[in-house]
């Protein structure tokens, strides 16, 4: 049984399509399809339901997938272990990370890391949505915020202070809120991937939700920052995004007598899957590059 056929099947199952599996494997669609067909002939079983609308696994495919995926992971671990014995980090590493955080901070930290470890084959996919690391085949997921998925094990990389900010022009036109009650009536710029457009603050007694008027809902932090700078409304941003604009005076911090809920930047991996030395080294690299407290908080 050829290993490339098993790899093709697992990639198809994780990607949900032959086309996406081919993209991830850096092969043509026809090659991946042929490898799947050869594997099915070798096993004497159909593994995939094929249709023009969607792809799904047969009962045999579901039964074979679990053991095939585990076998590939064990093989990758064995190869990586041999590389580590030689004092090197090598092999594929697939990571998901947020768009804005990567553009501003993760990317600049990763480039020297990859130069030091040229045998690592890093696939970095930028996406702000919440990722199912297990189902989508990621070795690790870098995220900013609280942890919700109990199937993930997380390593903290840095704290992430968030502040309410607005432009001077907006505050002159609409007034500067001083309390949570005053904040409630203001126009807000909200992040869509957090669900409803609420701001959550910690007071001495409890966590308080404030729901402002929606001026804009968007799924990108840099657009939120720019919209606030343009005077569209008040927004709640991490300092890794808002710091330079606060220093430059483009944005002003709005104090309302309560702090936003604490959040962190973290890297997570699926529970039950032994994290590779490559993932641990990458996490250590990011942790060292960010610092404690993180460098983007300097002077604020």
The low-confidence runs, each spanning 5 or more residues with pLDDT under 50, are: none
In helices, the fraction of residues equals 40-55%
**Biggest sheet: strands, sense, closure?**
5 strands, mixed
Please give the CATH architecture of the largest domain. 3-Layer(aba) Sandwich
Question: What integer value in Å does the Rg equal?
Answer: 23 Å
User: Helix/strand-derived class?
Assistant: alpha/beta
Give average pLDDT, whole number: 87
Strand order of the largest sheet: 4-3-5-15-6
Shape estimate: elongated
At the first level of CATH, the class of the largest domain is Alpha Beta
Q: Give the helix tally.
A: 11
Q: Proportion of β residues?
A: 15-25%
What is the terminal-to-terminal distance? 60 Å
DSSP summary, beta strand count? 15
CATH fold call of the largest domain: D-Maltodextrin-Binding Protein, domain 2
Instruction: Write the element-wise H/E pattern from the N-terminal end onward.
Output: HHHEEHEHEHEEEHHEEEEHEHEEEH
How would you classify the quaternary structure?
A: single chain
Q: How many structural domains can be distinguished in the coordinates? A: 2
Family: Belongs to the LysR transcriptional regulatory family.
GO molecular function, one term: sequence-specific DNA binding
Pfam family, one: HTH_1
Keywords: DNA-binding, Transcription, Transcription regulation
């Amino acid at each position: 049984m050829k290993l490339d056929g098993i790899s093709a099947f697992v990639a198809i199952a994780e990607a949900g399509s032959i086309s996406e599996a081919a993209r991830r494997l850096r092969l043509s669609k026809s090659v991946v399809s042929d490898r799947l067909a050869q594997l099915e002939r070798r096993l004497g079983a159909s593994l995939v339901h094929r249709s023009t609308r969607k792809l799904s696994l047969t009962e045999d495919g579901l039964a074979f997938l679990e053991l095939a995926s585990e076998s590939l992971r064990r093989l990758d671990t064995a190869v990586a272990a041999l590389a580590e014995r030689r004092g090197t980090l090598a092999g594929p590493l697939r990571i998901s990370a947020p768009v804005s955080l990567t553009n501003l901070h993760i990317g600049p930290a990763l480039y020297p890391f990859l130069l030091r470890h040229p045998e690592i084959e890093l696939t970095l996919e930028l996406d702000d949505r919440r990722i199912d690391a297990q189902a989508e085949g990621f070795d690790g997921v870098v995220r900013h915020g609280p942890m919700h998925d109990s199937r993930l094990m997380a390593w903290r990389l840095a704290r992430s202070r968030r502040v309410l900010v607005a432009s001077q022009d907006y505050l002159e036109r609409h007034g500067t809120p001083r309390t949570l009650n005053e904040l409630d009536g203001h126009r807000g710029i909200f992040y869509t991937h957090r669900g409803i457009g609420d701001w959550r603050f910690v007071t001495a007694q409890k966590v308080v939700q404030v729901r402002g008027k929606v001026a804009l809902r968007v799924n990108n932090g840099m657009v939120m920052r720019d919209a606030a700078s343009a005077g569209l409304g008040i927004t709640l941003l991490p300092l890794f995004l808002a710091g330079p604009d606060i220093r430059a005076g483009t944005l002003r911090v709005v104090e309302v007598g309560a702090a936003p809920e604490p959040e962190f930047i973290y890297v997570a991996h699926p529970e039950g899957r032994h994290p590779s030395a490559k993932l641990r080294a990458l996490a250590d690299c990011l942790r060292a590059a960010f610092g404690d407290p993180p460098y983007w908080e300097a002077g604020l």
